[in-house]
Design a protein that fits this description.
Number of strands: 21
Helix content: 55-70%
Number of helices: 25
Shape: elongated
Strand order of the largest sheet: 14-13-17-18-16-19-15-12-20-11-21
Largest sheet: 11 strands, mixed
Structural class: alpha+beta
Amino acid sequence: MSIIIKYIIKSMCEKKLRTLLIMLAILLSGALCFASMGITDSVMKLYEDNAKASIGNADLKITANGKSPSEYVNLGPSRQLSKETNYIIPTINTSAYYKVGQEVYDEMHLIGITLEDYMRMNTLELIRVSKSLAFEGSNIIISAKTADKYGFQVGDSLEVRLKDKRKRYIIYGVTTNVGIFKNEGDTPLLMVPYEELSSNLGADNRATILYIKATGGKDLRVLMESIKKLYPKYEVSEAMDLGSFREILTSFSTMLVMMAVIITMMSLFIVYSSFKVIMLEKMPVIGTFRSIGASKQMVNRVLLLEGSFYGVLGGVLASLVGVGILKGIVMAMMVALKGEVVTGKVVLKPSYFIGTFLLCLLICLLSSLFPILKISKIPVKEIVLGGTEKMKGRRFWKDIFYLLIVGFSIWGTQVVPEQLSLVAGSLSLILCILGVIGVLPLIVKWTTGLIESLFGSLFGNIGLLAIKNIKDNKSIRNSLTLIVIGVGILLMINNFGQNLAVEIVNAYEKSFAYSLEIKMDRMTKIDVRALYYEEGIKEAYGNIEGGVFAGQKTLLVDYDNAPILSVEAVQGERHGKYKTYTYVSEEAKREILNSLREGRNIAVASILKKRYNLEKGQLLRLELPEGIRTYRIVGFFDTLMNNGNMVQIGENYYRQDFASHNYTSIYLKTSHEPDAVLEYLKMKYRDRHLQGRSLQNQIKDNADSNASVMMVLSTLSLLAVLIGIVGIINNLFISFIERKRSIAVYRSVGMSKKQVLQMIFLEALYTGSMGASVGIGMGWIMMKNLPYALELIQMPPVAYFIGEGIGVYLMMATLVTVVASISPAFKSSKLNIIEAIKFE
């Protein structure tokens, strides 16, 4: 037993390239598995940590909404909750402007809170503090970032414009970026004593936000209902709502899982083909051990032990690499989702390491088990006498089976019932890989038969020999398979990235017809009319939008309470001049928009229509903030905004059913440059905290966000291609080893070194070009089915095949194969003929 184990360890060390290939394949699969398991928890934890930086340990909050009598919340009613709460903390939030140059002001965010209250709900780390001052009156706390930016020191004063008044503050202390200062961003944050800011704003000891901490064991839902009764005209919600964010995150994590599955399949093939060669190489030694008394079971156990070794080592390394990949993906996704770089630790659970380790071990055991069982069935006599070289003919039924799989991948969604099309399309995304790989030998047989005469005419006997070698050599076919998988996956990922880049721009251009979108405090019709007369503004329109993305309960009651991400309030036909979604016709568009004002009618995005099989005239029950309401569908429209999960209702009914009376934003059409108009409005409406973005900047920001995520997927696909390239090189070397004797025989009967090189390069030329061609076909099938997989995870089914650049894939795959064949080719040309002929 020890002799066999020593031999296996020695052979593993000798075959460094093959060992590296197997480890790379296992490593990438395991690392992606690790990342896909940890992505949701890690991003949610980062998002939660950053949210908690602002709200501390508070459970609930009370704020004003559209139906509130004031922008401030009165503390009086909340005193009835003293037995049910640990604290009720009032805060005041507002903005002020600090002059940094001639007519140049920087916005600063002010939060009013007592130091005692703040420390009960959050953290503070003062690194510099005045010994002669206290946190009261006009004394404030700033961050070290703000102090460095403006050169402030403890005891310095700064003057700001607050509600058209000048107010001078004295710096009491400087803190690190913890607590509310953690997410300070580019707008400096000033922490001001509560009574001071309340007095300056005329709030009369009322608050813009009341933060509430429930007593231990108190049911938050029960407490929320009690608070709503005390504050019926205010918004009562959880201090941190993670539901809508988790909804967005699910789509990204599912895409990563799909990528991990595809790469795992590729790794399985690479490891399986490598173990087949390992078993073939070990056959003479296996025969020797078996002939001197080693049992079949003992040899099988030792060979499985070798496979287990790869799995164990790969599992350990994959977990380590997986942590790094997880960190990179989390950072990229947070940039995409929040538009900023967010730092923090990723979540690492024992289940991630165990799952990754078991996957790596399973890949190796499954990949090695079948070749081992196949070898174990061969009698010792045949192994010793070399009778295993006989090739079994390919069974006809296998070709039919794989052709049927490919056929189902192409046409399956058209032949199954409509309700199964999503499942069939998603399944076909994986099945097409298996089918194409299975049908490759048949493709090789057909194509080599067709081009045999062509190669013979162009290259003579060398061309004919190259074609014969391709037909008979499994290593070349393995290289062909790796090229097909690599090109197919890369084509799908790049096509999808281009789809997103194009469709996001198109979606904005098809959906919006404004120059500038602005937001400020408590926007009403009066503000819309006032903006209309501002210089540089041609038109103004008040927009109201809600739904799950806005943190509002919006559910389809009769469809398992499926969430509606976005709900738009429509003011009739005029709405269509700013939200230019696609309708069946202009006449239908006018009819639908006008009918939304006439009752509880609703227009539904086409993606939702298809997802839930909705029909015009159908009644929909919606669970909204003010209860369950029934709407009648009056039409449909096309849009990709908010993942196509959107509906429209009349503005009057929106205000009733969502208890919202203020606009969420105002759309402006400008006659001047939008950014210049925005800067002008920011200064004029600075007391209303006006902010905004031009349509062009919105398009750019969304394109950049999606590019961050696609960069992650593209990087992973390139890693898969890199492994495929190493696999191709490995298989070419295996082919060289297997053909040493036959090449030497060719040389002994007159074939020159130049002709050997020519033959090998012709094989590489065919392998690269044919592999790329079939890979492009597989990529087309995958793109055909990708929309169904995207719809299954409730992402917009934006995926279509882009033919541009196909020549690049063809050229690159051929070039990679030809370059990879250089070393084996020159080794073949330098063979010692006598030694090679004697090789057994």
